[in-house]
Amino acid sequence: MVTNELMHNEMKGIARRPRLSEEVSMALEGKIARGEIKPGERLPVEKALAETFGVSRAVVREAVARLKADGRVETRQGAGAFVALAPKSLNLRFWQGDGPALAELREIFELRAMVESSIAELAARRRLPGDVTAIRCFLQAMDDALATGSDGSEADDDFHLAIAAATHNSYAHRLLEFLGRHFSESRRLAWTMPGRNGVLPEEAQAEHRRIFESVAAGDPRGARRNAHEHVRCAALRVGIELADDLISERSSDRR
Q1: Looking at the predicted structure, is the pLDDT value of residue 213 above 90?
Q2: Which CATH number goes with the domain that contains 161?
Q3: What percentage of the chain exceeds 70 in pLDDT?
Q4: Residues 192 and 231 grouped into a single domain
Q5: Is there a domain that residue 90 lies in?
Q6: What's phi and psi for 75, nearest 5 deg?
Q7: One domain for residues 158 and 123
Q8: Are 160 and 180 in contact (CB under 8 A)?
Q9: What is the CA radius of gyration of the chain?
Q10: E-strand spans in the chain?
């Protein structure tokens, strides 16, 4: 049995290790600060950045997402990412240093529960056939990761982003992109610690499937409930029990 303290220590260990995406985002931010990439200029394409830094395109996407969240760059549909003309003041970061305190983690999970449940509800109302196909694709990618015993955390992030895209509200998608990319350590923990009691990716995948089914079926109440339950269970898997006043809607939804 894994104790809450051990689980938190494992998570802090992950948070301490430098993330490639953080290194790339800091390098790009340095180029912007030095004027090597000027305000209004387009960032190099993903492939070029991946070759420059010797990383995958997924790492580049996450690095750019971090810069977007900090207001350093902005994306234009079909045109790519550009250095912001006037950097925005938003610079919300969930934690710095060795890792988040348990109290901060609890608040982050509460925020996720509020945001992700509302997004899933709206996605169930607005989803189009193409949205359902995209969500199913990432669900299958996680099934494939389970079958091979590999890390499916990137597909996990993309699954949630695809649900946000199904709302057809660009700000909902950008907000969930920020939340998900800055909090992916909690998802990665489940995928990289197979066999630990209560931290099996199979549990999260069963929850993902219920969210997908309710969104695909156009069931807003079910989508909201299942998304809420998924975050509650995700919190439990890292040793955090969410407050009753936050999860009380689960019982009322079933009446």
Answers
A1: yes
A2: 1.20.120.530
A3: 75
A4: yes
A5: no
A6: -105, 145
A7: yes
A8: yes
A9: 18
A10: 73-76, 80-83
Domain count, the chain: 2
Summarize pLDDT for 168-191 with one digit per residue, the tens: 998 898 888 777 655 666 666 667
CA 87 to chain centre: 23
pLDDT of residue 253: 45
Q: Give the CATH number of the domain where residue 70 resides.
A: 1.10.10.10
CA distances from 190 to 164, 186, 187 (A): 22, 7, 6
Q: What pLDDT does residue 246 have? A: 74
Residues 139 and 231 occupy one common structural domain: yes
The reply to whether 69 and 109 lie within a common domain is no
pLDDT, tens digit (0-9, with 9 covering 90-100), for 75-98: 887 788 899 887 654 455 555 444
Q: Find the domain containing 54 and state its range.
A: 18-83
Do residues 137 and 24 both lie within one domain?
Answer: no
In 3D space, the residue among 153, 148, 160 whose CA is nearest the CA of residue 208 turns out to be 160
What is the pTM (predicted TM-score) of this model? 0.63
CB 164 within 8 A of CB 247: no
d(CA 218, CA 196): 35
Distant-in-sequence, close-in-space partners of 95: CB < 8 Å, separation ≥ 6: 15, 104
